[in-house]
Amino acid sequence: MLSIIIPCYNEGNAIKDNINNRVIPYLKYKNIKYELILVNDGSKDNTLDEMMAIPGVNVVSYTPNRGKGYAVKQGLIEAKGDYILFMDADLSTDLKAIEDVIQFQKDYDIIIGSRHHKASVIVKKQPFIRRFIGKGCRLLVNMKFHFHFTDTQCGFKAMNKEMAKILIEKQQIDNFAFDVEYLYIAKLNKKRIKEIPVVWENDRSSTVSPLQSSIKFFKDLKIIKKNKEKYYVKS
Question: For residue 57, which of 73, 39, 69, 42 has the smallest C-alpha distance?
Fold first, then answer.
């Protein structure tokens, strides 16, 4: 079974439509056995009400807002699948990426979508300032953690349940840098990681401040680096 986690913050305008009319029909059409875990990360709108109106999903909700990393972790705790993925509520990553997860899931511990993979298709680009900051973040992250990834921050990632257990135990970061933390934990413990191409479309309605989120991101990178010894799994 595939567990799909969708963290949500103020997604009341779209979450029910996206799940009922896009996600569930796709999964049924592909004959995928699944569970859907929707995490309401302290939304201030009607997100929780909209979630509760969707039949057949597992809803996790709490207040106040804690950050995307915290929301994903709550989903991992609830997940019962053999393989687990999380993706953004706006479905900016095309659902066909799920097919790659199914194809490669036996051979890799963690699979990450990459908007900068040579085979990826970008339907709508982010504004220039976001692309500029994103490029700087990629260069810094790869140098700081000795990565060779083309994209650590794409909101589409998947893992097997053994990897999920490790992340639940080791995760310290609640905000956007949690993606880097996940990959660092996997690298330190010599887990098999694969980047896959995606079809991706920028969400123009995003209200996340690139400057404020970048400042917090850089602070969290320092914390991740300091936590290195805590991330190893004892044999």
Answer: 39
Higher pLDDT, 160 or 213: 160
Amino acid at site 209: S
Does the pLDDT at position 132 exceed 90?
Answer: no
Output the CA torsion 219→225→231→235 (10° steps). Answer: 180
Quote the CA–CA distance of 179 and 72 in Å, as a whole number: 10
- Residue 86: both structure tokens together: 């999380």
Q: Return d(Cα 33, Cα 80) in angstroms, integer.
A: 12
**Residue 204's pLDDT band (cuts 50, 70, 90):** low
Cβ(98)–Cβ(15) below 8 Å: no
Distance CA 149, CA 75 (A): 25
Q: Write down how long the chain is.
A: 235
For residue 181, list its beta bridge partners.
Answer: none
Q: How far is CA 47 from the centre of its chain?
A: 19
Task: Say how far apart CA 82 and CA 49 lie, in whole Å.
Answer: 29
CA distances from 50 to 17, 37, 216 (A): 9, 14, 30
